[in-house]
Write a structure and sequence with these properties.
By secondary structure, the chain is mainly alpha-helical. It is about 70% helix and about 0% strand.
């Protein structure tokens, strides 16, 4: 699914509303991923505390959402815009790209919980398409 101009506008508008809460969104989404999909913990075994809301989870959640903010800014060319992140995750961190989809799903869940009024069906569709496109762009260097 490609992002239409309307999808891009919807993502930008929604992100402008929620971005002030990016750290909390990231922390909650990453916390949920580690609990609901415990196999993802293997990538963070060097952390002393993997519990929801712990300092390393909060820190990496903020990092993840910084990447999402970067993706929103580069929404017109995600593959080129996220190339360095794709290389990092493929070659250095060696993260299974299936995990990008898992984290994307958890971000959607948190957005729906935190912003029930703003997270309309139209926003849901556009954000889902956007996060899927981000996951695909991050998977680019795996091919």
């Amino acid at each position: 699914m490609s992002l239409t101009a309307k999808d891009k506008d919807t993502v930008r508008t929604f992100w402008a509303k929620v971005s002030a809460n990016a750290e909390a969104i990231g922390s909650d989404a990453l916390s949920r991923m580690l609990v609901v999909y415990p196999q993802t913990k293997t990538y963070f075994s060097h952390w002393k505390d993997l519990s929801p809301g712990s300092a390393p989870v909060k820190k990496h959640g903020a990092t993840v959402m910084g990447g999402v903010a970067d993706a929103v800014a580069k929404i017109d060319d995600l593959t080129a815009g996220l190339l360095s992140l794709s290389e990092l995750h493929a070659f250095t961190l060696r993260v299974d790209p299936a995990n990008f989809k898992i984290l994307s799903h958890n971000i959607l869940v948190v957005l729906a919980i935190m912003f029930p009024t703003d997270f309309t069906p139209e926003v849901h569709v556009s954000m889902d398409k956007f996060l899927s496109a981000v996951a695909l762009a991050l998977s680019e260097k795996y091919r």
